[in-house]
Amino acid sequence: MTPEETRITSLTAEPYPDGYRLRVHIEMTPFQQRPHLEVVLSDANQEEVASSSIVEPLSWKLEFTMHIRGELHNPYTLEAKLFYPDGPADEPKTFQFDVKPPSPSEPLESA
Known about the structure:
The chain is mostly beta strands.
C-alpha cells in the first residue's frame, strides 16, 4: 500500500498477570514505505503511564511489551498513531481495557 493507504487495522492489548506489564498487538496494512508509530498508554485520570515510539518497523504485525508505571487506575486507554514524518498520517486507533491487580503471593512454607 502507498503511504496514503497505510492504516492500523487492529490494536489490542493483554495485561500480564503481574498487573504491571502489557502485551500490545498492532496490525497494519502491508506497506511499501515503512511508517512510524507512536503508542501511548493513559490511565483513568488521562495521565500518560507508558509510551513507545516505533520507527520504520520491518513487519506489518507487531507485538511488544509496555510497562505500566505507578498505581493502577482503571480503565486504561491505549492509543496508536501511524504517520510518515514528511507525509500522511492515519487517524489514531484506541483500545480501552482494565488491568486486574496482581494477586498476593502465597507464603512460602518453611522446610
